[in-house]
Task: inverse folding
C-alpha cells in the first residue's frame, strides 16, 4: 500500500514510491528509492511537501513499521493532517522470486548430495559426515537471513515427495524453528543435520509400503519402525557425527507419553532438540501432497498438531512452533469481514493476527486482477474493521488453487 505522508514525518528506512510532483527535475535518479540517510530527507524537503511511502518496500524494522502505523492511526486522533492509503498491485514478487531462485539452486544441489547419502544408508555403506555438514552450513546461513523465504521455498516447490525432498523440507523448517527459539548456531547446525538425516533409514523400507494408501499391517509397521534404529547405527559407525545428530535420527519418533519408538522414551528423557525435529517432521508430513492422500492446509495441520500436546509432544514447544509458523500460516486462505478472500504472504512476529495478504477475490466474490496487497496492521491502525480477518477459508470449497496463484505471482511475473 502507499501512504501519503508529510515530508517532515518520513524517516530513514522508508521507501518513497511517489512524490507530489513529477520525478523529472528532482535530484533523484530513480523513480522510487529507499531513504538511506538524513541527506535524502533534506533533498525531499527541498522539492516536495509530501510523498507516498510504500510500507511493503520499506524496511521491516519494528521502528519503521511502528512509525507507519502511527501515521495512519493519526487520522482518528487528529495528529496528522492528511494520510491516504491506496491499494497497490503486488510489486514485491520480483525480489522474492530472485531470492527463491537462489535458495532453490542451493537446495537442489543440496538435495542431490543428501540423496547420495541416503543411498549409501540404503546400501549399508559408511556415510561421510562432511557431506551432510556442508549442506546444513548453507541452510543455516540462508534460513538465518531469510526465514520466511525459506518457508516459501517449501510451499512452492514441486510435489515430488521422495525421501530426500522430505528430509530437506524438515531440515529447513527445523532450522527456521530453532532460529525462532533463539538457539545458537552450533545447535542450529545439529538440528539441521539431524533433520536432514532423520528419515535416511526409510530408504530400506519397500516403496510399496511407503506408498500404501490404507493402514499398515502389524508386520509392515514393524518394518517401518526399523528405519530409525537402522540409520542411527549406520551414522554411529562412521564416527564423525555429533552424538546429538544421532539422537535425533534414532529418537524422532519418540513421544512424551512413552508410546513412540524405538526405545519408548518419555517426557524429559526426550531432548528439546529431538522434539523440535519431531514436531516439524509431523507438520511437514501433514502438509505434503502424497500419491494416496491430499495435503492438509497449514492451519488445519497446526490444529491437529496442537491436539497432540501433552500426549505426543511438549506443549510449550508445540505452541512456540505455532507462533513460529504463525496463527495464519504463510499461504493460508482467509476470509475477511467484508467477504473478500486473501492469501497470507507475510506475517511479522509482533502482528501475527494482522498479516499482509494478497487479495484474490473482492467482497462480492469478484476475481481481482491484477491482484492487490493489503497490510492488515495498517488497515487496523486506520480503524477500518471491515478488512479484518473473519476466518480461515477452505481453498477447495472456494475453488481457489492457492499454489497455482502463488506460482504465478512468484515465478511468472
Result:
Amino acid at each position: 500500500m502507499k501512504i501519503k505522508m508529510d515530508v517532515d514525518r518520513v524517516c530513514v528506512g522508508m521507501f518513497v514510491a511517489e512524490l507530489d510532483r513529477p520525478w523529472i527535475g528532482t535530484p533523484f535518479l530513480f523513480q522510487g528509492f529507499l531513504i538511506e540517510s538524513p541527506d535524502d530527507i533534506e533533498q525531499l524537503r527541498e522539492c516536495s511537501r509530501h510523498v507516498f511511502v510504500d510500507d511493503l518496500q520499506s524496511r521491516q524494522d519494528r521502528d519503521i513499521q511502528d512509525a507507519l502505523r502511527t501515521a495512519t492511526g493519526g487520522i482518528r486522533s487528529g495528529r496528522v493532517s492528511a494520510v491516504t492509503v491506496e491499494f497497490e498491485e503486488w510489486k514485491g514478487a520480483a525480489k522474492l522470486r530472485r531470492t527463491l531462485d537462489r535458495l532453490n539452486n542451493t537446495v537442489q544441489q543440496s538435495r542431490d548430495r543428501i540423496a547420495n547419502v541416503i543411498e549409501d544408508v540404503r546400501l549399508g555403506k559408511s556415510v561421510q559426515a562432511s557431506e551432510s555438514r556442508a549442506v546444513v552450513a548453507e541452510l543455516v546461513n540462508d534460513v538465518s537471513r531469510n526465514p520466511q523465504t525459506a518457508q516459501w521455498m517449501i510451499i512452492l516447490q514441486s510435489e515430488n515427495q521422495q525421501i530426500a525432498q522430505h528430509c530437506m523440507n524438515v531440515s529447513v523448517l527445523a532450522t527456521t524453528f530453532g532460529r525462532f527459539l533463539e538457539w545458537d548456531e552450533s545447535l542450529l547446525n545439529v538440528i539441521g543435520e539431524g533433520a536432514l538425516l532423520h528419515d535416511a533409514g526409510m530408504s530400506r523400507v519397500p516403496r510399496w509400503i511407503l506408498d500404501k494408501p490404507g493402514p499398515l499391517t502389524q508386520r509392515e509397521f514393524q518394518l517401518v519402525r526399523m528405519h530409525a534404529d537402522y540409520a542411527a547405527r549406520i551414522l554411529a559407525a562412521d564416527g564423525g557425527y555429533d552424538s546429538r545428530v544421532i539422537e535425533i535420527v534414532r529418537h524422532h519418533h519418540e513421544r512424551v507419553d512413552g508410546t513412540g519408538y524405538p526405545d519408548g522414551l518419555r517426557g524429559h528423557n526426550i531432548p528439546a532438540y529431538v522434539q523440535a525435529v519431531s514436531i516439524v517432521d509431523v507438520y511437514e508430513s501433514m502438509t505434503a501432497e502424497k500419491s494416496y492422500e491430499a495435503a492438509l492446509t497449514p492451519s488445519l495441520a497446526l490444529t491437529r498438531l496442537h491436539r497432540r500436546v501433552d500426549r505426543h509432544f511438549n506443549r510449550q514447544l508445540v505452541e512456540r512452533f505455532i507462533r513460529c509458523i504463525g496463527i495464519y500460516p504463510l499461504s493460508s486462505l482467509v476470509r475477511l469481514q467484508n467477504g473478500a478472500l486473501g492469501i497470507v504472504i507475510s506475517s511479522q512476529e509482533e502482528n501475527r493476527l494482522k498479516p499482509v495478504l494478497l487479495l484474490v477475490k473482492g467482497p462480492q466474490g469478484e476475481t481481482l486482477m491484477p491482484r492487490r496487497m493489503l497490510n492488515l496492521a495498517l488497515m487496523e491502525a486506520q480503524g477500518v474493521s471491515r478488512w479484518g480477518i473473519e476466518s480461515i477459508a477452505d481453498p477447495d470449497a472456494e475453488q481457489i488453487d492457492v499454489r497455482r496463484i502463488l506460482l504465478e505471482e512468484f515465478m511468472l511475473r
